Amino acid sequence: MALWADAGSSPHKAWTDSCACEHRSSLSIARGVPQRKRFESSTSVAERAPRSRVSRPLAIERVALDSSALLGAQRGPVIAAAASHYYLGFWSSWIVAEFVRKRTEWIAERASRDGCDRAETRRRLRQSRRRINEFIRSCAPVLRSVDYEDAPSDGLGWLRDPEDWSVMQTALAASADVLVTDNAADFPLGELRNGILMLGGATFLRDLFRRFPDAEANVRTFLRQSLAITDR
After folding, report:
1. CATH of region 53-224
2. Bond preceding residue 141 cis, omega within 30 of 0
3. What digits encode the pLDDT tens for the residues 12-51?
4. Of 36, 151, 165, 177, which residue has the fewest beta carbons closer than 10 angstroms?
5. In terms of Cα–Cα distance, which of 74, 51, 30, 38 is closest to 202?
6. What is the SS3 assignment for the chain?
């Protein structure tokens, strides 16, 4: 059974099609949403980079997911909420590659700590590869892919690690309102950077469930029917 077969017929689908819904937004055209380009000059981007706190609740619409969110404890509910049409989720080839690399490194490092021999390490890596493939196949119909290189890299000097630039470029290329990341060491959670709000997975879900009271129950129902996005 396809893990995401019921995504299009979710009970929440009616919300995305309803013009009378109080929170109706660009989600009503979730199918085939054209890319909004909102790139700015280096001057204007830099002007928007300083720290600023944002009050809640938030109008969560377009959301980019970092690899740390895809590896984090909240990854199941986060992806299930996208599959249930509560927001538009985005990733990129960079995010996918980083997800694969980090999970593979994690498996190899754990095998080393456990004192595994080569045969056991290879077995664990093969098992991890299967789970990675299942996870990506499950996410592919749900998360829209953008080319992070479409977004400029200027105005990203606040990021200490240049490898994180591609994460922000993914969010910019998606015209995202929110970047969900559990990398609190490099991304200032709760703050706006380059016009995009940084949120951890747990905070993002709390805001989403507050905004849509039926979301938590629907997400739990969805997860009971889908194993790949929760199988670590």
Report:
1. 3.40.50.1010
2. no
3. 433 333 322 333 333 333 334 434 554 443 333 333 334 4
4. 36
5. 74
6. CCCCCCHHHCCCHHHHHCCCCCCCCHHHHCCCCCCCCCCCCHHHHHHHCCCCECCCCCCCCEEEECHHHHHCCCHHHHHHHHHCCCCEEEEEHHHHHHHHHHHHHHHHHHHHHCCCCHHHHHHHHHHHHHHHHHHHHHHCCCCEEECHHHCCCCCCCCCCCHHHHHHHHHHHHCCCCEEECCCCCCCCCCEEECCEEEECHHHHHHHHHHHCCCHHHHHHHHHHCCCCCCCC
Residues across the chain: 232
Q: Provide the residue type at 81 as one letter.
A: A
The single residue listed with the structure tokens 């969110």 is 69
What tens digit of pLDDT does each residue of 162-218 get? 999 999 999 999 999 999 999 999 999 999 999 999 999 999 999 999 999 999 999
Model pLDDT for residues 91-108, shown as the tens digit of each residue: 999 999 999 999 999 999
Question: Can you read off the two tokens belonging to residue 143?
Answer: 């998360």
**Cα–Cα distance between 74 and 207 in angstroms, integer?**
13
Average pLDDT over the chain, rounded to whole? Answer: 79
Closest listed residue to residue 208, CA positions, set 174, 175, 169, 177: 177
Name which of 13, 41, 31, 166 is nearest 96 in CA terms.
166
Comparing CA positions, the residue from 53, 212, 219 lying closest to residue 142 is 219
Q: What number of other Cβ atoms are within 10 A of residue 209's Cβ?
A: 17
